[in-house]
Specification:
alpha+beta, Naphthalene 1,2-dioxygenase Alpha Subunit, Chain A, domain 1, Rieske Iron-sulfur Protein, 2 domains, seven-stranded antiparallel β-sheet, four-stranded antiparallel β-sheet, 11 helices, 19 strands
């Protein structure tokens, strides 16, 4: 695995990776790890381990919960539940992204039940206590009858928010001190090349799946493409992978002979689209896969969340396009692409993963192996183990060491 790509601007890093890719093509090689990694199979279904992952990963790491284009205008909001926490995200009148625990300070009821919309104020459907975009309690129904309280002390609970590279991260722990820039390890500088802030959400769907780690393992796995996906899109796909890490976040690419066509052109003329092709993972739960949407650039942004049990998960597939379809022909092509991607994940990746975890549960001493050619999975599981054991105060040092 390559060392962290932490030098130069985002485009300079993309060019450096492209040149490394070209060398691998010319030398007909990939970089390999020192040994095979063995992970106890129980970690994919053990409830005690799963609860540790909920508490020490999903409830204390910044999670990418929205694309900036989902909250484009002041007053735009989005709600979702993550690891048991109801979240309200919004864009305030000053253009700032905000996030709150979606729970009324009166009796704890969920304040906003709609998934999306636009509002200046948010009134709880239980007793009509009302909050503004800053989370402040601004009105109490029949306040004189209720009794005197200090409204300034009973606003919505704020959650830490960070917006970078056209994406919005939220930390579910209100008291978290893990800085978003420390967490990202400079990864956002490269992701800026997508210009996601100017893109648009075309559609979104949810797919039920296996244990979240089984699903995440697949994000970084090109080894299976020509096998599992041979009847859909993968028959001629390469199975070798190059991994580029920024802390726990990784880019997964294959040696690409097409890049050799850029070698004799000035680097300033290298098209950004060619430099971005591959899969980009954001720890602990996001994959960004690039492709042609039928009418221009498009990506599938997959947001993976643990389910209610160790053996379940759900993935929100966001189909994001540089430009929304302007003709029926492009729209039909986009719909067909999205439908195919949903089918591949549901019926091939996740169907296989569900059977995989059932089989593992029959073999208490089973091990899951990651070969020397599967450095991305090795990096993910090694970091995850250290993160589970890491106290809050040592988190910045852990990220800086892996970066």
């Amino acid at each position: 695995m390559r060392e962290a790509q932490n030098k130069g601007t985002g485009r300079e890093q993309l060019i450096e990776m492209a040149r490394h890719n070209m060398r691998c093509v010319q030398e007909q090689r990939i970089e390999q790890t020192a040994d095979v990694l063995r992970v106890p199979g129980r970690r994919y279904y053990d409830e005690a381990r799963w609860r540790l992952e909920i508490d020490r990963v999903f409830r204390r790491m910044p999670l990418m919960l929205a694309m900036s284009c989902e909250l484009k205008d002041p007053g735009d909001f989005k709600t979702l539940e993550v690891a048991g926490v109801p979240v309200l995200m919004l864009r305030d009148q000053n253009g700032e992204a905000r996030a709150y625990i979606n729970s009324c300070s009166h009796r704890g009821a969920v304040v906003v039940r709609e998934e999306r919309g636009n509002r200046r104020r948010f009134s709880c459907p239980y007793h009509a206590w009302t909050y503004d975009q800053g989370g402040n309690l601004v009105a109490i129904f029949q306040e004189r009858d209720f009794g005197e309280i200090d409204k300034s002390c009973h606003g919505l609970t704020s959650l830490p928010v960070g917006e970078r590279a056209g994406m919005i991260w939220v930390t579910l722990n209100p008291d978290s001190t893990l800085d978003i820039d420390t967490f990202l390890c400079g990864y956002d500088e490269v992701l800026e090349a997508f210009s996601f802030a100017d893109w648009a959400l075309y559609d979104a769907r949810t797919v039920e799946g296996p244990n979240w780690k089984i699903a995440y393992d697949g994000y970084m796995d090109l080894y299976h493409l020509p096998i599992l996906h041979r009847n859909t899109f993968g028959a001629d796909m390469p199975c070798q992978a190059l991994y580029y890490p920024w802390g726990p976040h990784q880019r997964v690419a294959s040696p690409d002979p097409r890049l050799l066509g850029l070698a004799d052109r000035p680097e300033s003329e290298w098209p950004t689209e060619a430099l971005l092709q591959s899969v980009w993972t954001i720890f602990p739960h996001v994959s960004i896969a690039s492709f042609d949407g039928g009418g221009g650039r498009a990506v599938m942004v997959s947001q993976l969340f643990p389910g209610d049990t160790p053996t379940s998960s759900r993935t929100v597939q966001n189909y994001v396009m540089e430009k929304l379809p302007e003709s029926d022909e492009v729209r039909e092509a986009a719909d067909a692409q999205f439908k195919m991607l949903e089918y591949v994940v549901r019926e091939e990746d996740y169907a296989t993963g569900i059977l995989q975890q059932r089989a593992l549960m029959t073999r208490p001493d089973a091990e899951v192996m990651f070969g020397r050619n599967e450095g991305g999975g090795q990096h993910f599981h090694t970091f995850l183990d250290e993160l589970i054991d890491c106290p809050d105060e040592a988190l910045p040092a852990l990220f800086k060491r892996f970066a």
